[in-house]
Amino acid sequence: MTRSPREAMGFEKDDPRGTLADFLIERLQECTVPLEWEDRSIGFAVRRAGDDERPAGRPRLWFLPDDRGRILAVAYKPSRLTFSRDRFAYGALPFRPGQEAGAREDLESLLRWLHEDFKPALRPARLQRTISVTLPSD
Amino acid sequence: MLNPGELQIELFCRGLRIHESCELERDARHVARTRAGLGSGLEMVIPGDLKDLWLNVPVEEDFVDETPFLLAKRDGAYRVEDEQNGEHYPVVIPPEPDWYDRATSRGVPMHRVGVLQGTYLGIYVSNSCMYWYGKEPKNCRFCTTGANVGVNEVAEKDLDDVVEVAQAAKEESGVTFVHFNTGYQNGRGLEQIAPYVKAVKERVGLLTGIQCVPVPPAEHWKYDVLMDLGADHFSFCYEFHNPEWFAKLLPGKEATVGQRAFFESLEYCQGKLPKGACSGEIIAGVEPLEDTLRAIDYITSVGAFPTVCIFRPVIGSDMEDYPSPDPDAMREVMRAMHRSCRKAGIPMGVAPNIEVSLIVNPDDAQYLVPRDWAFRLHAWKQRLIRALAAGRFRRELRPHPVSGDLGRLGTGSGKGGQG
């Protein structure tokens, strides 16, 4: 990443989501499963380290702000075709400022799911299957 | 050596790996799940002596790792190579239309409004299907539409954007048919689609098809309004004929309308339109084979044509871990579909330039039956029907005023989407 994850979220100093973003980034940095970080035009994504060598291993969690004052973690897989713009979304989990305590558990369930290749049976309970924002094209 | 129809089914079931010699970024349409029920693959054409076959080949799903089929570019031409026996088959990769990357007047990339699926334009007009919402979503278990809108396409379609995209697709890609889909919209799907149908008829001049969750018999009059607005085709996706499979895998449809509503609406609409104008859409490869065969015979018995998708365990769906179907069983299904259509006198391949890449079209399956005298007689009849219908289709493909009244559906002045 050329920017820090915090910079990538693009929050102003007094934006209440900044504290939430710091919390999420710290938990991700503490994660026992090594993660690789990717810059996005808005926000950042994480994936399991070393996944590039596995044909089916391509799950990503994309953290970005939505227009309802939340931070979304969008679960998706990019196409396996290098030229394709397609993305295979599994849904999104919203995080709200001021609810960091519950966010820890949600984040852990997301990371477990990431590790298990987004198996349908292991989907986090609070995951929303539909995505309420139009995602940028990157 | 497989004939084109057999190869089509093998590729639907087993998928295709891409050899490094391919230059698909330059040569192919982008692989899009826009409006993905069961689509996720590479658009391709298999040339044949009876007709060329369009198909959307699985290339993304995990089962593709095991396929014997490899797409390669040799001496500038694409071919499918079968690594089991060394056979190879020439194929054509249709190029991406120039308009895909252009923007509408409002600045929306056209490929995020609608995409070509075979030779027709598919547009998902509204927000995600409502079955996807709620704490326990009741989405159809094979589908990924709810997780797709907003990710790969814009969430709501502006009326003028749709008209511009339809115009571009008609002028530059020779499109003759636009298919509108809504998913479940709390019983308001027909109302949502109506303004788009009217606008495309009056401002572009295309054949139009509609796919909505059916309304109850007391509201069947709405179909009449849509027909007056120019709807040429209605498709009813009831997916599984066996009521238990329907209930289990389509919990939203089961809870809101039930399987019977699909039959009632199909029979109502088909009763008002020329034979073969409506379709019953089903998925083969999940429920028992005999149920699929029963579905085909039911659909043709009411004068409609069967749209049979081969099940694909699309990434991100609840059924992504299901196996892809057995090609031998699918050959049997498609052969039965062709025979059933012939027996019931359902016209095949009559409308101009409508090739659906996500399914095996009834006339695609002619490659699966013997070319005996009955076959030749049937082919002659289809040519005659095509010739007789040509004038009507020419009229429909010119922009023209329609008689339907949007006000009857309570959809106001015809501003759809965010327009």
Summarize the entry for a quick read.
The complex is a heterodimer of chains A (138) and B (419). With 138 residues, chain A is of the alpha+beta class.
How does this structure look, described?
The complex is a heterodimer of chains A (138) and B (419). Chain A has 138 residues and is of the alpha+beta class. Chain A has one domain (5-122). Chain A has helices at 5-9, 17-30, 100-115, and strands at 35-39, 44-48, 60-65, 71-78, 87-95. Chain A has a five-stranded antiparallel sheet. Chain B has 419 residues and is α/β, with parallel strands linked by helices. Chain B has a seven-stranded mixed sheet with strand order 7-8-9-10-11-12-13. Chain B has a four-stranded mixed sheet with strand order 1-4-5-6, with no helix packed on it. Chain B has helices at residues 4-14, 24-27, 159-173, 189-203, 221-229, 243-249, 251-256, 259-272, 289-301, 327-344, 373-396, and strands spanning 17-18, 42-46, 53-57, 69-74, 77-82, 88-90, 115-117, 120-124, 177-183, 207-212, 233-239, 279-284, 305-310. Chain B is built from eleven helices and 13 strands. Mean pLDDT of chain B is 92; it is low at 413-419. The relative contact order of chain B is 0.14. Chain B has two domains: 4-90, no CATH class; 98-409, Alpha-Beta Barrel (TIM Barrel), CATH 3.20.20.70. The chains are: A alpha+beta (138), B alpha/beta (419). Chain A binds chain B through residues 55-56, 74, 76-77, 79-91, 118-120, 129-135, 137, and chain B through 18, 24-25, 28, 30-33, 40, 59-60, 62, 65, 109, 128, 132-133, 137, 139, 144, 146-152, 154-155, 314-321.
